[in-house]
Amino acid sequence: MPSGQVDMGSSPLLSALLGMLWAIWTARNLEIFGNSRPHSDILVAGFIQLIKDYKVYTRGVYRHKASNHVISLEQWTPPPTGWIEINIDATLPHTGCASLGWVARHSNGNIIGMGVKRLCAP
After folding, report:
1. What phi and psi values does residue 71 have, to the nearest 5 degrees?
2. What does the pLDDT look like over 16-56, one tens digit per residue?
3. Minimal CA–CA distance to 52: which of 76, 87, 16, 3?
4. pTM for the complete prediction?
5. d(CA 51, CA 45)
6. Can you list the pairs that 96-99 forms with residues at least 24 positions away whose Cβ atoms lie under 8 Å?
7. Which terminus of the chain, N or C, has less C-beta within 10 A?
């Protein structure tokens, strides 16, 4: 895995902890902004599934890294102090399955969240 990235699914305990934190944060936002109170078990299960999907995705991406390594001449520029920058990207390769990803960083460059999702046509 490239330096600077966190293996979010390296242990079941870490996945469970992240699932609980994500569930609490999501439930809070849904209650405050969405006027609903979701069941926490459903939120945690959804996050655990996201971790599993992330593992499958990264295995496929990093397995072929040497054959399609691209060097970028652009450099990330941090947002102003106190701001959070969220970068998103998507791809639709010849397989027909779209891959979506996002990363959120503080102005100091630390990653505070990231996610990936693969969507395939039925």
Report:
1. -95, 125
2. 677 677 777 877 888 888 877 777 677 667 777 777 777 77
3. 16
4. 0.39
5. 10
6. 96/120, 96/121, 97/121, 99/57
7. C
